[in-house]
Amino acid sequence: MDGTRGTRELAAALARLKTRSGLSYQELGRRVFTSSSTLHRYCTGKGVPGDYDLVVRIAKECEADADELNELLRCWKAATEQERGEGRGEDQGREQTQDQEAAPTRESRPAPAPVRRRPPGTRLVLAAVMALVVLCTAVASAPRESAAVAVPAPLGATGWTRAPQPVDPELFGVTVNSSSGAMPSFRTGALRLWDSETRWAQLEPARGGHDWSTLDRLLDGADREGLPTLFVFGGTPSWAAPNARKAAYPDGSRAAPPDDLDDWDAFVRALVRHAGARIDAYELWVMANHDHHYNGSVTTLVEMTRRASRIIREADADATVVCPSITGLWEAKAHEFLLRFAAAGGYQHCDAAGIKLYQRRISDPPETMLEAVRDVDRTFHRAGYHLPLWNTGTIQTLPLNDPLREDTAADHAVRFYLTGLYARNRNLARMYFYAWGNGGIPVVLQAEGRPPTRAGLFVARLQRWLTHADIRSCGHGPRNALPENVWQCEFLVPAPDGTRRTARVRWTHTGTADLPVGAGARRVEYLDGTAREVDHRDTERVTERPVLIRYG
Questions:
Q1: Please, are residues 422 and 489 in contact by the beta-carbon 8 Å criterion?
Q2: Global pTM?
Q3: Over the stretch 51-67, which tens digit does the pLDDT of each residue have?
Q4: Minimal CB count within 10 Å: which of 96, 148, 190, 292?
């Protein structure tokens, strides 16, 4: 079967299931966590789901039988193989570019970013704005900046300097949205298991009857790659809380604690005994302040935390216990929940605190998350705790957003992790990008079965830049002798002669700025793998895509 035919047949099969279910596109999309417009494209042959898990979720909501699932898999494979074949040449070329250092010449400097097109109706307004900018910049002193410098910097971004500290590779984590055992083919530092068919209800479908097959595939894959794994608790089985509200998943799991906490103890004990040292850390509940995931009392949540922590530490003293993650941190009620959990003693039982960091809008600069980090830091000070913060995910409605442009997605992915490094002064220790394996979200690092995207390759390049590096400062704006829109983190990186030399990563949250590279600069490197030699007389145009400047 060719890919075009496979796409048509997949669309027809999905459309039949959707019609038979009687569900609207909006309702079915809500149940499988994708937008109604995206679902409509799949059912009309104008698009193909990036991962088979989404196809399965659609089929399950429409009560497909085993034969229909097999037929969907056959059509999906044919459709995706065609897409893969069309994109293979471009993707392979991109990977080769990433893995090769360009000759160190000025000619290797990338061309300027293309000008963004704007609707015709904005031209008169833009002309007036640009006239004002020209007037202002005519009297401005160096460094020379773009008009975008007028955009305020995100709140909560406090610069800092301290003794050099190692950049932990485990900062660069990803959440795995796959149950196959496949692993990222680009460099990453840690894995988190969620939306990976490893909810409590799936691992213990009947009291005392465990199915570890999916978990074992994932843990074996992580072990092969040498990646530390964070297991996430959530999704109480229906048998353990039959009268509770259903969770936001199609497996019948419940958004509530079990009726009998002895069932909780038994599951935690069985999991830790089975997994052993293959699980490095445990997140004790997902989105604990979101009714779709947990609607029990704070008192019960603290008791579950206390019990699980005791069981885990008795079995594996080296495991990291992460307190239940809290989402919605842009709103006061999330901080009130955090304070109630703290007042009840919840954080006494954990090594780290789970939080969900994300922008207010998916298109906002990643640096805007620093405002939420600042507010969380203040709340923990009020509560009297100073635990390491682990950012373990994003907002539940993420899949309902449209994809970002490829260039924007790649820039944002890299700056997601740089924002984590910038927030080191607020005790942010781990960043799990959501997600690996999922092709239906606004920023895709790598859909399972496909090559890494530009975003994934750029994230890998950032990690190569910072291998064995120590970080010693981050800052932005005039307080750090930089333009308002420019951000910088400074590192000590290994040199070929065995010494450690200064390197700086610079970027903007919006617009551009032309800056001197500075005394001692010798090389500028770009995320696409190219580079150029420089000296102190050169300037570099800093953009929303980070660059590395090496000194010494």
A1: yes
A2: 0.76
A3: 666 787 798 889 888 78
A4: 96
